[in-house]
């Protein structure tokens, strides 16, 4: 099975949790893409009714509109029934790294407002500790004096953690702009990040930081699609 087929399997399994009448957080990324498509398909077939979608990015909003999924926002629906979204990394406590697609702020706002947050991943996303895979841990920051903030982020971590902060650049060579007109600084670690809650608080305390990509204690269920089938992990 290809990684894409595994993503689709996890996504379809997550849509089994959707009931008619639900207000849903619609995730962003290549795995959530399949879940949003499936919801649109079931709505068209009449197998789901009275669904309201709260998108986590402009990209997902456009996809949902093209599928005819009725949309609303957090101002109208401050509490949601269920969100379905992908993740870049999942640790053994079901903590996540998200945001490599740049949508982490709206994802964290929407998914933090849900009674249930179902994460859908292929098995390649499972890690022992977050940030250990050498891949990016994104931080959304204001553009003003971004280099000042990037350097302060690096200095939060010990030499052992070996943190390097890099401004995310878009295809045009200009800084990547989020849906909220902010920048993303990606943190790369050579060693362990340390205690996630301590690291989270230290990052969020820096003036100029908007939000980071660690989703700690937020997922209620993680659906993992692997070569040997589907594993459902509940908090
Ligand atoms: O950027 C994001 O937050 C995405 O949801 C990411 O975490 C998962 O994207 P993928 O399903 O394309 O791997």
UniProtKB/TrEMBL annotation:
Pfam families, A to Z: Rib_5-P_isom_A (PF06026)
EC number: 5.3.1.6
GO molecular-function terms, A-Z: ribose-5-phosphate isomerase activity
Source species, domain of life: Eukaryota
The reaction(s) this protein catalyses: aldehydo-D-ribose 5-phosphate = D-ribulose 5-phosphate
Isomerase found in the keyword field: yes
GO biological process: pentose-phosphate shunt, non-oxidative branch
UniProt cross-references to SUPFAM superfamilies, sorted A to Z: D-ribose-5-phosphate isomerase (RpiA), lid domain, NagB/RpiA/CoA transferase-like
Keywords (A to Z) from UniProt: Isomerase
Gene3D superfamilies referenced in this protein's UniProt entry, alphabetically: 3.30.70.260, 3.40.50.1360
Pathways involved: Carbohydrate degradation; pentose phosphate pathway; D-ribose 5-phosphate from D-ribulose 5-phosphate (non-oxidative stage): step 1/1
InterPro entries recorded: NagB/RpiA_transferase-like, Ribose-5P_isomerase, Ribose5P_isomerase_typA_subgr, Ribose5P_isomerase_type_A
Family: Belongs to the ribose 5-phosphate isomerase family.
UniProt xrefs under NCBIfam families: PRK00702.1, rpiA
Protein name: ribose-5-phosphate isomerase
Organism: Papaver nudicaule (Iceland poppy)
Organism placement in taxonomy: Eukaryota, Viridiplantae, Streptophyta, Embryophyta, Tracheophyta
